[in-house]
Design a protein that fits this description.
- By secondary structure, the protein is an all-alpha fold.
- Helix 5 runs antiparallel to helix 8.
């Protein structure tokens, strides 16, 4: 990510510059040039290693579609441009899963954390969903056994965040298990 340093400007002797001043400037410039040459050599080596690591971590079929670039930064930009459409399709898939996801048992906490994780994956794509909307998506994904619980939430003036929803749903699941003899139709025991 660090750009290559720029080469020092070539020296030009002034018309009325003395030989002593000119030689002093040449010595100073030689030091600057040597420092630049060392930095450029290190940068080239680092850039070459970065390109090798990046290219070796990409499967052949994708790597073949990406044109070669002289710097790792340019190469990463080319890679990113290849996947712009993919991120849109991925976002659409996540949204469809969130809307269509239904609780099928196996632990309410895991179900809620899975939905929370899906919604958080939309944030980097600039499609962040408001927490209150995710809470309603989660409530809509619950089975009929949670119907009274959902009605109670809807008539309550308090709005919950995801953490409170998880705690309350786990508590409700435990209450439902206790009232049904520790078994529910929708709860799968591992």
């Amino acid at each position: 990510t660090t750009p290559c340093s720029t080469a020092p400007v070539a020296l030009v002797r002034g018309q009325d510059e003395s030989t002593t001043d000119w030689q002093a400037r040449q010595r100073d410039h030689a030091t600057v040039q040597m420092k630049y040459d060392l930095e450029k050599t290190k940068w080239n080596l680092s850039n070459r290693k970065c390109l090798m690591v990046i290219k070796s971590s990409i499967i052949d079929s994708i790597r073949g579609a990406i044109p070669n670039c002289p710097t790792a930064v340019e190469y990463l930009k080319k890679v990113e441009s290849q996947f712009v459409g993919f991120s849109k399709a991925y976002a659409q898939t996540l949204i469809q899963r969130l809307v269509n996801n239904k609780y099928k048992g196996g632990g309410i906490r895991e179900h809620l954390l899975k939905m929370s994780n899906m919604s958080s994956k939309l944030k980097p794509m600039e499609m962040e969903l408001p927490n209150s909307f995710v809470v309603h998506l989660v409530l809509a994904s619950l089975t009929k056994e949670f119907e009274t619980f959902v009605v109670n939430y809807n008539i309550s003036p308090e709005k919950w965040d995801l953490e409170k929803l998880i705690a309350m749903c786990v508590q409700e699941e435990e209450r439902l298990k206790a009232s049904h003899g520790n078994t529910l139709n929708h709860v799968k025991h591992n």
